[in-house]
Amino acid sequence: SLIEKMIGTATNDLPTLVLLDVRKVGWAAMNTLESIKSNKLFCRIPTVIFIRELAGSDVEACYAAGANSVVRQSSDETFDDVVDRIYRYWLNFAALPANLRSNGTGTLIK
Questions:
Q1: What is the Cα–Cα distance from 17 to 60, expressed in whole angstroms?
Q2: Residue 64, beta-bridge partner list
Q3: Which residue, among 87, 86, 79, 85, has the nearest Cα to 106 in the 3D structure?
Q4: Which residue has the higher pLDDT, 19 or 52?
Q5: Fewer CB within 10 A of the end CB, N or C, for the chain?
Q6: Which residues, in sequence order, are bridge partners of residue 71?
Q7: Under DSSP, is residue 4 helix (H, G, I), strand (E, B) or coil?
């Protein structure tokens, strides 16, 4: 699982950003989100959730579980375009704690 991989990662190699795609893995991703946000080591990592529809209750559930952002990909955007915009915001524009600042290379955990 993602949490097991993160636990096995050195503290200075933790991901700077986590993207969870509810569209592909279903609402089980919420368990992963809750595990990230309840862990002292991981809780400050920005976590973005991809959902199918911006239904009010789904959005509310994601934020209640600790999501930092909830995103729906529009039909005229590619997944790569959306991820690029998210990456640019969180890793280039947003002010992050020192231990989460990216060196520009990023870390991808699959």
A1: 21
A2: none
A3: 87
A4: 19
A5: C
A6: 50
A7: helix
Order of strands across the sheet that contains 18-21: 18-21, 47-50, 69-71
What's the confidence (pLDDT) of residue 70?
Answer: 92
Count the neighbouring beta carbons within 10 Å of the beta carbon of residue 77: 13
Distance separating alpha carbons of residues 25 and 1, to the nearest angstrom: 12
Beta strands in the chain (DSSP E): 18-21, 47-50, 69-71
Distance CA 102, CA 33 (A): 21
- Residues 33, 64: Cα–Cα separation, whole Å: 10
- Residue 69 near residue 49, CB atoms below 8 Å: yes
Nearest of 86, 40, 37, 45 to residue 65 by alpha carbon: 37
Matching residue, tokens 């636990």: 7
pTM attached to this predicted model: 0.77
Backbone angles phi, psi at 54, to 5 degrees: -90, 50
Half-sphere exposure of 46 (CA within 13 A, CB side): 19
Segment 59-74 shows an average pLDDT of 89
